UniProtKB/TrEMBL annotation:
Keywords: Cell inner membrane, Cell membrane, Membrane, Transmembrane, Transmembrane helix, Transport. Residues 22-431 form the Major facilitator superfamily (MFS) profile domain. PANTHER family: INNER MEMBRANE METABOLITE TRANSPORT PROTEIN YHJE, SHIKIMATE TRANSPORTER. This is MFS transporter. It comes from the Bacteria. It holds the Pfam family MFS_1. PROSITE patterns: MFS, SUGAR_TRANSPORT_1.
Length: 445
């Protein structure tokens, strides 16, 4: 199942990328992709229930909007298959460019969609199609960005280098909410709902141009270049990864699932619950966006810290300790958010998003390290995006229903349950800190 080609003994070493360029490209690309992804999440709570669904029960409209939000997580495993195939066949660089373009076209498309008042039921259908396109793009983005950073990392620093694509998540979230906050502060609600909400989606055009320029100047990663030179590329990476590395796919998915649930509880669910004047806390939209942006700063601060810890103490010990802390946080979630006033809400956001940085940071090293080089793009992407499908796609929906039906303590119980699943997966997984990512994969693998 490999492209066999003789390797000349005097084949030149593949060109290397300057470390600063590698870190910049992985950070800028994921920041743009996550910005695109998160402006939808914010709009799904603040805008789409009002503009893309028929008038009526606001809670029902929000749940319908969150259902379209979930579509991207169904698309992401498909994106990991499509882009993973080409990433393991053609290369990391070209595939990352294609994933960025896919995300960008879908995001700009949302910015020009007609509303329900203009075209009726066609509006949410088109919205769902564009959201599917966003999911395809991000499904291929993360694995390539993680490999770009880790396959170019010096010895002993893969965990830290891997945190640079991870920093795209808090940076993208901060930018997305910052743009929405600026718009809501400078225009009336009527103007914002009439056309202002489209601005964050259309701004993505400028960011995509920057991202493409950065990525097109890179060389291929040394690890993949060696696979090409050795003739060890597989013909069907998706088939190969499930044939030879299915256990790594399952473990990687379960290791990541609590991270996804935590993040979307801290952001999408908390924004909806925090600004709901009837069933939630009733904060002003702009006020709660500021709260979230403060919390996301802590997310960003603790992300590189987690990489340093994972390089120093190992992936397993670091993530096991953080997962135990997330379980404790889930137990305290209800009283902290519901009964502590503004201080309690801020403590909830800061602690939760700090834990998010600590658990999310090492994942760009952990998941790629589970797979051999010739299926690494596919394997890491599949595990990452299956975790998104299981852990994130319906997390805001489930949490909103639990909070409205049983109370916030049940939302915390939901987080505890998935964190226990992640903890078990971590306990039975192997330590990967000292694995050699440049090793040419054996045919038996």
């Amino acid at each position: 199942m490999t492209d066999v080609a003789p390797r000349s003994p005097d084949v030149a070493e593949p060109p290397t990328n300057p470390r600063r360029k590698v870190l910049t490209a992985s950070l800028v690309g994921t920041s743009i992709e996550f910005y695109d992804f998160y402006i939808y999440a914010t709009a799904a709570v603040l805008v789409f229930p009002l503009l893309f669904f028929p008038e009526g029960d606001m809670l029902a409209a929000r749940l319908q909007s969150l259902a379209t939000f979930a579509i991207a997580f169904v698309a992401r495993p498909i994106g990991s298959w499509v882009f993973g195939h080409f990433g393991d066949r053609i290369g990391r660089k070209a595939t990352l460019v294609a994933s960025l373009l896919t995300m960008g076209i879908a995001t700009v498309g949302i910015g020009v969609l007609p509303t329900y008042a203009q075209v009726g039921v066609l509006a949410p259908v088109l919205l769902a199609v564009c959201r599917f396109g966003q999911g395809l793009g991000l499904g291929g983005e993360w694995g390539g960005a993680a490999l770009l950073a880790t396959e170019n990392a010096p010895a002993g620093k893969r965990g830290f280098y891997g945190t640079f694509p991870q920093l795209g998540a808090p940076i993208g979230f901060f930018l997305a909410n910052g743009v929405f906050l600026a718009l809501t502060q400078t225009m009336s609600d009527e103007t914002f709902l009439a056309w202002g909400w489209r601005v964050p989606f259309l701004l993505s055009t400028l960011l995509i141009v920057v991202g493409l320029w950065v990525r097109l100047t890179l060389h291929e990663t040394p690890a993949f270049a060696k696979v090409v030179a050795s003739g060890e590329r597989v013909k069907t990476p998706m088939v190969e990864v499930f044939r030879t590395s299915w256990r790594a796919v399952v473990l990687g998915t379960l290791i990541m699932v609590a991270t996804y649930v935590l993040f979307y509880l801290m952001t999408v669910f908390s924004l909806g619950f925090g600004t709901d004047p009837v069933d939630g806390l009733g904060y002003e939209r702009s006020q709660f966006l500021v709260f979230l942006m403060i919390g996301v700063v802590f997310f960003a601060l603790f992300t590189p810290v987690s990489g340093l810890l994972a390089d120093r103490f190992g992936r397993k010990p670091t993530l096991i300790a953080v997962t135990v802390a997330i379980i404790a946080f889930g137990v305290a979630m209800g009283p902290m958010m519901a009964g502590g006033g503004t201080v309690g809400v801020m403590a909830f956001l800061i602690i939760g998003l700090s834990l998010m940085g600590l658990t999310f940071g090492p994942m760009a090293a952990v998941l790629p390290e589970l797979f051999p080089t010739n299926v690494r793009y596919t394997g890491a992407s599949v595990a990452y995006n299956l975790a998104g499908l299981l852990g994130a796609s319906f997390a805001p929906y489930i949490a909103t229903w639990l909070a409205g039906t049983f109370g916030l303590a049940w939302v915390g119980g939901y987080l505890v349950l998935v964190s226990v699943i992640t903890l078990v997966a971590l306990l039975i997984s192997r330590e990967t800190r000292d694995d050699d990512l440049d090793a040419i994969p054996a045919r038996a693998r």
